[in-house]
Amino acid sequence: MKKVTEIVMPQLAESLVSATIDRWLKQPGDVIDMYEPICEILTDKVNAELPSTIQGTMIKILVGAGETVPVGTPVCLIEFEEEGVEDASHAPSAGGAAGAAFAAASPGAGSGERAAVRMQGAAGQTQGDGDDSMRHRFSPAVQQLAVQHNVNLSYVNGTGLGGRITRKDVLAYVESSRSAKPASSGAASPSATGMPAMNSKEPVRSTGLHLSESPRIPKVEIEGQQLPGRSEYFIDVTPVRNAIARNMRQSVTEIPHAWMMMEVDVTNLVTLRNKLKEDFMKREGVNLTYLAFWVKAVVNAIKDFPIMNSVWAVDKIIVKRDIHIGLAVGTEDAVKVPVIKNADQKNIAGLAREIEDLARKTREGKLTLADMDGGTFTVNNTGSFGSILSYPIINYPQAAIVTFESIVKRPVVINDMIAVRSMANICLSLDHRILDGVICGRFLQRVKENLEGFTLETKLY
Amino acid sequence: MPKMDYIDAIRLAMKEEMERDEDVFVLGEDVGYKGGVFTTTKGLIDQFGEERVMDTPLAESAIVGAAIGAAMYGMKPIAEMQYSDFMFPATNQIISEAAKIRYRSNNDWNCPLVVRAPMGGGIFGGLYHSQSPESVFFGTPGLKIVAPYTAYDAKGLLKAAVRDPDPVLYFENKKCYKLVNGDVPEGDYIVPIGKSNVLREGDDITVISYSLPLHFIMEAAAELEEEGIHAHVLDLRTLQPLDKDGVLEAARRTGKVLIVHEDNKFGGIGGEVAAIIAEEMLYELDAPVMRLCGPDVPAMPINPPGEKFFMLNKDKVKEAMKRLAVF
Predict the structure, then answer these.
(1) CATH of residue B101
(2) Contact B327 A160 (CB under 8 A)
(3) Parent domain of B202
(4) From B282, B286, B326, residue closest to A167, measured CB to CB
(5) Nearest CA of chain B to the CA of A137: how many Å?
(6) Cβ distance of A164 and B327 shorter than 8 Å
(7) Is the predicted ipTM greater than 0.90, yes or no?
(8) Contact at 8 Å (CB) between A354 and A338?
(9) Taking chain B, what is the end-to-end CA distance rounded to the nearest angstrom?
C-alpha cells in the first residue's frame, strides 16, 4: 500500500529557526534510501546535507533551491510502501480528487494514534487550514497533562489556533487511547515498528525562549548586480555572514574588552620544528605546524590559570573544568571556529593531527555542528596571514582570546650583546568583568615561558 | 417563588432590614419624599418616617461622614450615593476614615456602614452618571465591596452588608434595575460576602465577571452552546475580599480564562484576578489570560455612538469568548 509522508526542515541547533535549501540532490521520481542525502541546506552556523528519514520515492519538492523556510516546514514529499495492510475504512476519502488518499499511520498502531497523525494529500496540502505555526507551542496545562498521562505530544491532534494542541485535545487523546488500548494490546508500539513515517516530524524542536533571537536574514539584491547610474553594488548577506555579524556585535557590546601584548622569543621552537617536521610528515602524514605548539602552550597556561577558561554569568563566574580550544580558521569569505575537545588531554602530535583535520574540514565546508560546539577559549593564528599585531574580538561568551602573530627575525639584545632571534608577538583580548591586568599578565607570561621552554629535548608524544 | 426586578429586590432588602432592626436607617439625596431618583427607596418614608429615611443636603462627604459617626455610635446606616460618580467627594471619608476605624482603634471601634451607589453606564448618562468607580476603592483593605448581578444576590448581599460589622460598599448596577429580573424567595436570607458563584458550568472556557456584563455573557454563552462551545461562568459577587479559591477553581476547570468588566482595563479588577491565577496556577493554564473591558478613556461619552463603543454588549463578549475557545 503506497503512502506519502513529508520530510521537514530539521532543527539542526538550539538557536536555529530557519534554514535555506542550497540545492537538491534528488529530484522527483528518484528512488531514495533511508538516510540518503536529499538536499544540501545552509544555515547561519553550518552547511549540512539533509538525510532522508525514510526509504521511498520522491514525488514532489515543496521548497525550491535558494528558498529559506522555518524549521519544521515540509520540504518534500516521499512516497513509500507500507508494510502490512490497514483496513481502508480509516483512510480519509476527501483526498480522492488528488488521485489518492493517504493514511499516514504505521502498521499495528492503535486507532488513537492513527487518528492523531496529520495526514498529507498528494497535492501537498495539509488537511484543515494548513497553518501549523502553533503546532509545537505547548501551554503549561498541556505539558503537565502530557507528563501526567505519559502522552507523547507528537501523536496528539491539535485542534487549536494554528494547529495548537489544547488541553482538551490531550484529554481527548488520553480518553481515546484508553478505550483503544484493549484492542491494540499486543501490537507493537509505533516507535518499535521501525517505521519512521510517523516520526518524521519528531526530531523537530521548536520550543524555547531563544527562538526569537535570530533576526530574519535580510534579503538584499543579487550578488554583483550593477544598478545603472550607481557606483555601488550589493552583496547578499549569507547566513554565515549574518551569524558572524551578530556574534561580533554581541561580543563587543556586552563584553568590556581590554587588550595586552607580549613578545616571545621562539628561536628554539623554530629550530625544534625544523628538525622534526620532515620526519613527522613521513611518519604521521600530517604537517607539524607551529599552531600545535601554540595550542599546547596555551592549554598548559590555562591549567595554571583556570579563570581564563570561564564565562561571565552576571551574579557569578562560571569556570569550566574542561578545556575545549576553539581555533579561528579563516576562509575567503568567512571565519569559523572549530573546536579541539579536551585539548588538555592531547599531546603535541595529537593536536597537530586534529588541527590539520579541522582546518581541512573548514576549507571543504564540511564542518558539522558538533565540530564547532562547546569551545571554552579561542586561539587565533593571525600570523598565518602576515599580521604582527592584532586586536581580536572575544568569541562570545568566553573570557579571553589569544592570537599568535608572525614569527620574524629581529635583532635582540641578550646579555648586552645583539643577537638575531626569531621573535613573535602574542596578543590577548580579555573580558575585563572577569579578568584584570595582573592575572592576564601572569597568564601571558606563562604562555611565553611555555613557548620559550620548547627545546630540542621536547617530546611530541 | 416570586420573580422580581433587581431594583425591587434592593428596596425589599432595605425594608426587611429596617423592620428587623430599628438601628437601620437610610440617608441620602432625595431618598425621602421623592423616594430616590431611581425609586429605590420609594415608600420607605411612609412606613418608617423621616427620622429613619433622611433627606440630606447635596454633600456626599457629609452623608458618609454623618453615617460613619452614627455607625461608630452603634447605628446601622445605609448611605445612598445618588450616582456612584458622586461618591468621590466622600472618598476621604470612605478610605481614610471608615476603612481604618477598626484598625487604628485596635479593635475598640468598628464601623457597620453600608454605602449604596448605582454604578455603570449604558443609560445615556454621559460622563458623570456612568462611571464604574470600583477600582478607586478596590485596593483599600478595610473595605468590603460587593457588586450583585442577580435579583437574588441584590437582596441577599444587601442584607449581608447591613449585618456586616464593617464598612461595605454596595455597588448596584443602574442598568440592571429593570433589565434583570429573577427569582427572589420570600423570607429572610443572606448571600455571604466573599463568596463567588458559578452561574453556568462548562469545560471549554472560563469567564469571570461581575455586575451587568454577566448579562451579556450569559446570553453569549447560550448562543455559543449551540456552536459546541461550553462556557463556565463565574460571578465574583464580592470584589473585596476576592474569593480566591472560587476564582482558582473556576479557572482550573478549563485552563482558559476570560475576565470581563465594564470598568476600564488598566488598573481594573481583572488585573488582580489575572495575577492571582498567574501566581497560583501557571502550570494549569492552557491559554494566556484574556481581558475584555471598557476602553482606557476618561469616561463614558454622552453621544450614542460613543456610548455604544464604550459599552460591552453580547456581540463583543461573544467574539472574545470565541477567540479564547479556538485558541
Answers:
(1) 3.40.50.970
(2) yes
(3) 197-326
(4) B286
(5) 11
(6) yes
(7) no
(8) no
(9) 41
